[in-house]
Amino acid sequence: MTEALFDAEQLKRQLRRSERAKKVTAIALIAPLFLYLIINFIIPVGFMLFKSIDDRDVKTVLPRTTMALSEWDSVGVPGEAAFDALVADLREAYVAKKHSVAAKRLNTAQRGFQGLISTTVRRLPATDSVSFKTALIEVDGRWGQHEYWTAIKRATSSRFTLIYLLSAFDLTVDSEGRIVQVPSYMRLFNTVWLRTFWISLVITVVCIVLGYPLAYLMANAPTKVSNLLMILVLLPFWTSLLVRTTAWVVLLQTQGVVNDFAIYLYLWTERLQLIHNRIGVYVAMIHILIPYMVLPLFGTMRRISPSHIRAAKSLGANPLVAFMKVYLPQTVHGIGVGSLFVYVLALGFWVTPALVGGRNDQMISYFVAFYTNETLDWSAAAALSAILLLLTGIVFYVFKVVFRLGKMQMQLR
Q1: What is the rounded distance in angstroms from the CA atom of residue 369 to the CA atom of residue 194?
Q2: Domain end: 132, 156, 186, which one?
Q3: What pLDDT is stored for residue 211 in this prediction?
Q4: In 3D, which of 340, 227, 247, 237 has the Cα closest to residue 288?
Q5: pLDDT above 90 for 244
Q6: Is pLDDT of 10 > 80?
Q7: Residue 412 has what pLDDT?
Q8: What is the pLDDT of residues 328-345, one digit of tens each?
Q9: CA dist 292 → 91, 265, 285, 371, 397 (Å)
Q10: CA–CA separation, 52 vs 368, rounded Å?
């Protein structure tokens, strides 16, 4: 009896060791994937989200001014100590070439601050000036205005700010701390957001209209024909995005192949402007994104048995009714997955609209690239990226609810 109990305990220990070894092996196998996700996704996205609300730039560049304004009651204009601290900070920042960092941040709170800082650092008063307050006001009278000093104090009073996120929706914080819309002549991003979602929606709908018949033909054609069509669908993936977009620039220009061919066939009599406008954006983006619609549809249609349609017809349904009542509902999952791919990818397009679109056809990603590469305003770029990420997540959830993607996928399995 004792030996039997001993053997049972030993067997349990061996089983536990075996289970632990399996868990360790599984963790070791997936560890590189987790490490890849952490390094290439979680850390960059986390830094981007943090940068969109980080508000330490002004504090870092103007530490003396920050300390001097902490004792200011925000009434009128601060005293000589604040002006002395500002001159010392600007002189040091100008030497280190960091003044533009504070200028960009302050410009989001008070328009004109960037020009004010740039003018001031080039005309800083001499170190032996009797009154830096008088000297700075002589350099630029705006230093004698209450709202500019209030903007500095607000930018240095907290470690975090919503100013960049608000700016992405044409909102700002006024001198009294209220959230208000920016002046009408400065409003931009609300229109850009609407344009981005509208262009993505139009491209998704057109991809469904063009991709559904193609996927149906591929799914029901003989193997040789289906393989040939699959190669043609995948062919764009073998060419870089930039090359494909540049090719459309050549094809769609006024003296391009499309206009030549259309005039030859008498489709129109005068050469049309097909590039640097919305038409060019639609054509180029649809060409690039339509494979992402066709492939999910093809995968769904291949799993549908032809006997379903035959059964419907045998029960008296005409081809149209059989298609609408039997075949189409079974392809909703493919439509949903393809639409999600196309719509989400279209939201983040930058190269194609930048090359074939006009000034009024640029999407939100263009401004992310502009802030990142041109103005180096990484906080503004991070705010736009964070909002785009959030809206993409909302789009994904909406598609999942509307098309019941998870539930339908389980049913298909």
Answers
A1: 18
A2: 186
A3: 93
A4: 237
A5: no
A6: no
A7: 41
A8: 888 988 999 999 999 999
A9: 55, 32, 12, 29, 19
A10: 12
Identify the pLDDT of residue 213. 93
Residue 313 has pLDDT above 60, yes or no: yes
CA distance 52 to 54: 6
Burial letters for 191-208: b for 16+ Cβ neighbours within 10 Å, e otherwise? ebbebbbebbebbbebbb
Backbone phi, psi, residue 181, to 5°: -75, 150
The rounded distance, in Å, linking the Cα atoms of 65 and 153 is: 9
Kindly give the interhelix angle for 405-412 and 332-347, rounded to the nearest 10 degrees: 140
Q: Under a CB-based contact definition with an 8 Å cutoff, are residues 346 and 203 in contact?
A: yes
Query: Which position has the token pair 């049309």?
Result: 272
Structural domains in the chain (count): 3
Mean pLDDT taken over the chain:
85
Beta bridge partners of 160: 54
- Between CA 215 and CA 331, with CA 309 as vertex, the angle to 5 degrees is 40
Average pLDDT over residues 7-12: 71
Q: Are residues 299 and 346 in the same domain?
A: yes
Q: How far apart are the first and last CA of the chain?
A: 50
Together in a domain, 137 and 235: no
**Domain coverage including residue 62:** 57-186
Q: Are 78 and 69 in contact (CB under 8 A)?
A: yes
In a domain, 45, yes or no: no
What is the pLDDT, as a whole number, of residue 364? 92
Structural contact between residues 291 and 341, judged by C-beta atoms closer than 8 angstroms = no
Query: Is the domain of 75 the same as that of 158?
Result: yes
pLDDT tens, position by position, 383-400: 999 999 899 889 888 888
In a domain, 49, yes or no: no
User: Are residue 356 and residue 374 in the same domain, yes or no?
Assistant: yes
Query: 77: which residues sit within 8 A by CB, 6+ positions away?
Result: 133, 144, 145, 146, 149
The answer to whether residue 236 sits within a structural domain is yes
Query: 181 and 143, same structural domain?
Result: yes
Hey, which bits of 123-249 come out as E strands? 171-173, 179-181
Q: In this structure, are 397 and 268 located in the same domain?
A: yes
Residues 304 and 344 in one domain: yes
**CATH number, position 251:** 1.10.3720.10
Percentage of the chain beyond pLDDT 70 is 95
For residue 171, the SS3 value is: strand
Instruction: Please check whether residues 319 and 399 belong to one and the same domain.
Output: yes
Q: What's the mean pLDDT in 358-367?
A: 89
Question: Which of these, 39, 187, 47, lies nearest to 111 by C-alpha position?
Answer: 187
**pLDDT at residue 294, rounded to an integer:** 93
